[in-house]
Amino acid sequence: MPAVDKLLLEEALQDSPQTRSLLSVFEEDAGTLTDYTNQLLQAMQRVYGAQNEMCLATQQLSKQLLAYEKQNFALGKGDEEVISTLHYFSKVVDELNVLHTELAKQLADTMVLPIIQFREKDLTEVSTLKDLFGLASNEHDLSMAKYSRLPKKKENEKVKIDVVKEVAAARRKQHLSSLQYYCALNALQYRKRVAMMEPMIGFAHGQSRNGRGCREAECREKKSRQLFITPHVCWGAWVAQSVKRPTSPQDMMSRFVSLSPASGSVLSAQSLEPASDSVSSSFCPSPTCALSLSLKNK
Amino acid sequence: MPAVDKLLLEEALQDSPQTRSLLSVFEEDAGTLTDYTNQLLQAMQRVYGAQNEMCLATQQLSKQLLAYEKQNFALGKGDEEVISTLHYFSKVVDELNVLHTELAKQLADTMVLPIIQFREKDLTEVSTLKDLFGLASNEHDLSMAKYSRLPKKKENEKVKIDVVKEVAAARRKQHLSSLQYYCALNALQYRKRVAMMEPMIGFAHGQSRNGRGCREAECREKKSRQLFITPHVCWGAWVAQSVKRPTSPQDMMSRFVSLSPASGSVLSAQSLEPASDSVSSSFCPSPTCALSLSLKNK
Asked: What mean pLDDT is reported for chain A?
């Protein structure tokens, strides 16, 4: 159904029942997306939480291993060996902790943050514009009712002119808010695809960057640590390879955005008055095809 | 101070103030050990908990990625690519989940369980025997007091014989319980060193076994998964190498136990009556030197 691709801004002024019906479909879709996004964010925050808890737990374990020395055991004979062995294990746990901490930071920055931003920016924008559109529509309906209740007498000509002015202003306001609302809903259809995948690319990229950090450390501590440090390199490299290794998730996104041609009909909204300024700011052309192709051509 | 090495069972019967004083040193040591063990257990359970939470979190994330398909978006056009990409990411997260789950199981079995067993078996045994020894001592004191209050008259000869019998029985009982208690305290001095390190060996071994499982999987799914699967192999192998790679922590322990010669003076307790049976059961010769040497000669 190609007609459902977007809300045509040209039809915003007429505000026909057909346009309203199509609008309700877009609104339903945005509602489903909001629910899904909240659940996805919850799942991602849980992964981040677990990773963060692993940092704290390994930190505590390492400290606890070192604390053996400070226990003032009444019988400390022969404990030197135990102490030095526990120190050694503590170091091992510390190194593991460094990896966990780095990974937790990556997850926060590249997985959780983008989806929070999507929710706070895009979804909140749609919901705000929905409210404004509702208010403008009500205002317009009220002024129309006022106009229809006007007496037909000649002597009320001046009042009539005022009411007509009011109707015109209300219609202009409703038109403006509907243009903004339609644009936000159209943009959301493109944004949502990127928004669903950006955090997972960040997730994969986080593992990859984590791996690269480890690889550098590996070069420094060549021999003894070599085998210990490679884990995240391997897994990171594999994931990074699968997603064709971009420089950063942002670079990846911008590459996709610049690759995809602007899709005409929606963009044409920008030439319409009066909502053009607010349209372009929230507009995001479709990067999804390029993105998913790149992901699938592994 | 070689005299503080062990409580001499030969001195249990005499129960001199010097022996009592030495006993209190061993008791203080056992108390410190109990506190430390509880803290160490807590730290290890936290690591296990974090690992377990990571399993559940990755499971939830994978499910949530798959759930996109079932959202009944009012506008589903072009979602096939998003769906297939999220399916792909879900698989990646699933594979990560398998590794996390395996590792969590290993941590439970080889890190948390041994220290719980040490607490439940060794520390609880010492605490129980301490109570029994206290009861037997009180009983002995009471019968001694009874004996000392006996009138010196001839006609009470029969009563006197009964009280003497009672004192003898109480002393035998106290002697038995002190032998058991001393043995448990002596054994604890050896056990504690192993008990502190066994969970960390289990921790390292868990990573190693986890790695081996992955390596087998790696052989099966040679090419595409190769880089992904190696992580835990590397870290596991490094740790395992450091601890001279035993077949299992139990094997490692039994090897150390069989290697170390029985240390005479404590063992000689077994020839003493009446506590010999219960002595040998809780006795554990010193595996610590062999263990820590092996750990340090990496």
From this structure: 74
Residue A293, Ramachandran bin (φ over 0: left; ψ between -120 and 50: alpha; else beta) = alpha
| Domains contained in chain B, number | 1
Distance from the B91 Cα atom to the nearest Cα atom in chain A, whole angstroms: 12
The whole-number pLDDT of residue B209 equals: 58
In this structure, is residue B148 part of a structural domain? yes
Under the banding of pLDDT at 50, 70 and 90, the label for residue A208 is low
CATH number of the domain residue B283 falls in: 1.20.1270.60
Of B29, B43, B57, the CB nearest to A64: B43
What distance in Å separates the CA atoms of residue B146 and residue B160, rounded to the nearest whole number? Answer: 10
CA torsion sign for B6, B12, B14, B16 is positive
- The 8-class DSSP code of residue A11 comes to G
- Tell me whether residue B74 is in a domain: no
Query: Does the beta-carbon distance from A36 to B68 stay under 8 Å?
Result: yes
Q: Please answer whether residues A91 and B91 qualify as being in contact, where contact means their C-beta atoms are separated by less than 8 angstroms.
A: no
Chain B residue with minimum CA distance to A57: B47
Q: Using one digit for the tens of pLDDT, what is the confidence trace for B254-290?
A: 433 333 333 333 333 333 333 333 333 333 333 333 3
Is A85 in contact with B237 (Cβ distance < 8 A)? Answer: no
Q: How far apart are CA A60 and CA A254, in angstroms?
A: 41
Residue A2: inside a domain: no
Domain-located, residue B2: no
Q: Yes or no: say if A72 and B29 are a contact pair by the CB < 8 Å rule.
A: no
**What are the pLDDT digits (tens) for A83-106?**
999 999 999 999 989 989 999 999
> Rounded to an integer, what distance in angstroms lies between the CA atom of residue B139 and that of residue B146?
11
Nearest by CB to residue A231, choosing from B40, B75, B235, is: B235
Average pLDDT estimate for B99-125? 94
Cα separation, A111 vs A106, in Å, equals 8
Residues of B in contact with A39 (CB under 8 A): 64, 67
Residues A219-255 have pLDDT tens digits of 443 433 333 333 333 333 333 333 333 334 444 344 3
DSSP for A149-188?
Answer: T----GGGHHHHHHHHHHHHHHHHHHHHHHHHHHHHHHHH
Give the range of the structural domain holding residue A165, as residue numbers without chain letter.
10-69+79-296
Contacts of residue B68 in chain A, CB cutoff 8 Å? 36, 196
Looking at residue A210, its pLDDT comes to 54
Which of A75, A86, A185, A188 best tests the B interface by mutation, with the highest count of B CBs <10 A?
A75
